[in-house]
Specification:
This protein is α/β, with parallel strands linked by helices. 46% of the residues lie in helices and 19% in strands. The termini are far apart.
């Protein structure tokens, strides 16, 4: 073996040993997880449960910071341009990674290039829900009522370009109805507005599960390909409109240049706590969320697939945010 190859092997060995040492030492100070919405929404609920368990398993404080704005771009940019040291992360919904690039004419960062997937975390469906004053008990009854109502019924969303909006727009297209879009700053405020009667319809996320269970919102259907375990009595919209699917996921991301040993350690810890039955139960009870544990390759494939799905949907609907 010549001196060149000996040098390369030595360098590789030193890099491996340094990476291993780095992972063993990490973390040495508190870790911050940014959440893109105000307190109470599904990412916030999941982040706080995750942070609590990681604090215990990592031996350092892991805390959540709510930083809303621009459909998550404010928090996304902060992490994408932050120090790649594993101490500032973001728990992002798929909408931030796969929808925002389609609806914003100019993005301050590239969600696919500047954010590094650490681990998938959870998934859930939306629930099509109405204010109980609306005289409809089933999805077909609602479609018929909405078709006849003039002016159109107002529906709440978590913001322009949000999945709440895209999901309703998909239903409008499939059912041939008209509804008036009223955007709010997050899914939780959108659910609250529908309870108050400011709007009549909403795609309620995990944070609104309690509103459905209490009857303050009337659930009509779910948006996934199958019924939700949390509300098995509700049919899937796909049962009436085959092919309709709006399943969302949450994932933990870091700045792209974060060292792989740190990312691997974080991924292992996250997936270990997600596999705990107690945490899975808490995710389900507090927000109708289900743990989503994927390999890095499978998570990357999901991101790419959804990026293309929403690119086509946004182009079809014509949603843009100025």
């Amino acid at each position: 073996m010549n001196s060149k190859w000996i040098g390369l092997v030595a360098l590789a060995l030193m890099t491996t040993l340094a990476g291993g040492a780095l992972a063993q030492q990490y973390p040495t100070r508190p870790i911050k997880i940014l959440v893109t919405i105000p307190p109470g929404g599904a990412p916030d609920l999941a982040a706080r449960l995750l942070a609590q368990r990681l604090t215990e398993t990592l031996g350092q404080a892991v805390f959540v910071e709510n930083r809303s704005g621009a459909n998550g771009n404010v928090a996304g940019e902060a992490v994408a341009k932050g120090e790649p040291d594993g101490y500032t992360l973001i728990l992002a919904a798929d909408s931030l990674i796969t929808i925002n690039p389609q609806v914003y004419p100019s993005m301050p960062y590239d969600t696919l290039k500047d954010l590094l997937p650490v681990s998938s975390v959870a998934s859930n469906q939306f629930f099509l829900a109405i204010n109980p004053e609306v005289p409809a008990k089933t999805l077909p009854e609602f479609i018929e009522y909405a078709r006849k109502t003039k002016p159109p019924l107002p529906y709440a969303s978590g913001g322009n370009g949000s999945q709440h909006q895209l999901g309703i727009e998909m239903l409008k297209q499939r059912a041939g109805i008209d509804l008036l879009h009223v955007p709010y700053r997050g899914g939780s405020p959108a659910g609250t507005a529908t309870v108050a009667g400011e709007t009549k319809v909403v795609l309620a996320g995990a944070s609104s599960a309690g509103l459905l269970k209490s009857g303050r919102l009337r659930g009509l259907a779910t948006t996934g390909t199958k019924r939700s375990p949390a509300f098995p009595e509700l049919p899937a919209i796909a049962e009436f409109y085959p092919g309709y699917d709006l399943t969302i996921w949450l994932g933990l991301f870091a700045p792209r240049a974060t060292p792989e040993p740190i990312v691997a350690k974080l991924r292992a810890e996250v997936q270990k706590v997600l596999a705990e039955p107690e945490l899975a139960q808490k995710l389900n009870v507090t927000g109708a969320l289900e743990p989503l544990i994927l390999t890095p390759a499978a998570f990357n494939d999901l991101i790419r697939k959804d990026f293309e799905k929403y690119r086509k949907l946004v182009n079809d609907i014509g949603v843009k945010i100025q």
